[in-house]
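Progress against Task 2.4 (sequence-to-structure conversion) is shown through the following example record, which the project officer requested during the mid-term review.
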Amino acid sequence: MGDGRMYEHTEYLHPIFNALILLCIATSAAASVAVVMGGEGTSADAFGVVIAVVVLVPVWVVFSRTRVEVTQEEVVLTWGLVGRPQSRFSLSDVEAFRVITFRPLWDFGGWGWRMGRGGSRCYNLRGSTGVELRIAGRSYIIGVSDAQGLAEAIQTATGKQPETPGDWASGAA
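Structure tokens generated for the chain above:
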């Protein structure tokens, strides 16, 4: 990785969800073209189909993947095909961290950018494993399938040992 990154991992949207979103986009686009080219339907029909495309394409672009990078200074989480939005966590602010298994639906109401009990935050595209960071007393969970690799990179960068799940009274684990 020679550019200062100590760790990089990319998670992708589950293939079934990816296929469903792309199918909806393609169907909406085809219906829109049919309405415009065929002259059948009203402008409201065409508008509805265009809105579906305008909503689905950005959702797919933003939520189709997430990338986690660790440098000597920070953990960087980027979403989507264009790498935006982005969340940054300064490693100097990390009080503690641990590898955890959590329940996305139960603990956070699903996947994506989520808020949980006690002000905790979860950034998770798929799966139920990750690394929990404690920063200013607040819990931030970064969901990745390679949680151990992420924890090792944070350990190398900070010199801190990961804590065990039982060490924290709060959190999802």
